[in-house]
Amino acid sequence: MIKITPAKMDNAIEVEVQGKVEKEDLNLFEEFFTMKKQEYNKVNILLLLDKMEGMSLKCVLEDLKMVQHLKYIQKLAIVSDKKWIEIGVKLERLLPETNVEHFIPENKVQAQHWLGE
């Protein structure tokens, strides 16, 4: 499940991921991302990972279509426990023009400030 909430900055999206991510979740994310991208061109994302269980096959295929949007991500702050650090490192390699930082859950406010810098 993905929950999208307004972020403290106008050009940002806050995305909370829990449990299993489905195709419908990615469609919702893409809709919000596209709206922000049209308004601001570059988008910052605060990604909160909490007990994520993976993705359905449909979701993985849908996720591949999201590649076209990667160049519009300016900063990506990943807030998760330490087991997700490896994913953050892999994301950083996939997004060479994007600033990617990892924060532990206790430092969510710090992540929000970093996105606003």
TrEMBL record:
Mind telling me which InterPro entries this protein's record contains?
SpoIIAA-like, SpoIIAA-like_sf, STAS_dom_sf
Q: Which Gene3D superfamilies match?
A: SpoIIaa-like domains
Q: Which domain of life is it from?
A: Bacteria
Write down what this protein is called: STAS/SEC14 domain-containing protein
Species this protein is from = Virgibacillus dokdonensis
Ranked from the top, the taxonomy reads: Bacteria, Bacillati, Bacillota, Bacilli, Bacillales
